[in-house]
């Protein structure tokens, strides 16, 4: 089958596939959990795994059932994802509204056209539970607002993100994220991840281009 759903991953047996679906900011309802379980049972998924990116992976699906399974799942398949902590909505340490901001970022950037996949981490305080410093873009909350960090990566060539700007309102943080992504899209090589792009350009050069 040539037209596999976006993000389908061929497994070790070279016959079955995994699909990953993204609950917005990692938040699910009981009804959505029940639907995931229903789909997993219906299509005999040997494994359902919660990934490090707060996604559900249904592993071991048959190729000819992929489209039907994806259509029945309650969350979108593939796309960029946003990882978030509970923020000041629930957590007593939260300084900023991580969940609300993550939802806005997902709506705004979930299908953003860029040279490579992007991962966003939105942490409501400096404890950084959403792993913002090792995401392509990250927000970290404080009493003064948001710090925007760029260029993090947790893969084989791990990298701690650089601080692009601090003390941002939620609106300004999202606007600057969009400005950075447009700059990245216009200047990065094909399939070049944000971490490698920031290494190549240098954070000072990026600050100058975006903030003057």
Question: In words, what does this structure look like?
Answer:
This protein has 212 residues and is α+β, with helices and mostly antiparallel strands. The chain folds into 2 domains: 9-77, Alpha-Beta Plaits, CATH 3.30.70.2500; 81-211, Sulfite Reductase Hemoprotein, domain 1 (2-Layer Sandwich). 33% of the residues lie in helices and 24% in strands. It contains 7 helices and 10 strands. Strand 3 (47-50) and strand 4 (56-62) form a beta hairpin. The protein starts with 8 loop residues before the first strand and ends with a helix. This is Nitrite/Sulfite reductase ferredoxin-like half domain-containing protein. GO terms for molecular function: 4 iron, 4 sulfur cluster binding; heme binding; metal ion binding; oxidoreductase activity. Keywords: 4Fe-4S, Heme, Iron, Iron-sulfur, Metal-binding, Oxidoreductase. It comes from Desulfobaculum bizertense DSM 18034.
């Amino acid at each position: 089958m040539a037209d596999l759903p976006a993000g389908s991953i061929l497994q070790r047996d070279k016959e079955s596939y995994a699909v990953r679906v993204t609950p917005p900011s990692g938040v699910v309802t009981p009804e959505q959990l029940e639907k995931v379980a229903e789909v997993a049972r219906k299509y005999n998924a040997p494994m359902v795994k919660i990934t490090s990116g707060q996604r559900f992976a249904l592993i071991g699906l048959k190729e000819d059932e992929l489209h039907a399974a994806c259509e029945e799942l309650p969350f979108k398949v593939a796309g960029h994802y946003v990882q978030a902590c509970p923020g000041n909505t629930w957590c007593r340490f939260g300084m900023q509204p991580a969940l609300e901001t993550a939802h806005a970022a997902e709506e705004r950037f979930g299908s953003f056209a860029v040279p490579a996949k992007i991962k966003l981490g939105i942490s409501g305080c400096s404890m950084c539970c959403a792993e913002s410093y090792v995401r392509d873009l990250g927000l970290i909350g404080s009493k003064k607002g948001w710090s925007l960090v760029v260029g993090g990566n947790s893969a084989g060539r791990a990298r701690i993100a650089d601080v692009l700007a601090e003390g941002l309102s939620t609106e300004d943080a999202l606007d600057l994220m969009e400005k950075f992504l447009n700059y990245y899209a216009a200047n990065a090589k094909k399939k070049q991840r944000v971490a490698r792009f920031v290494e190549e350009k240098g954070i000072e050069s990026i600050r100058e281009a975006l903030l003057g």
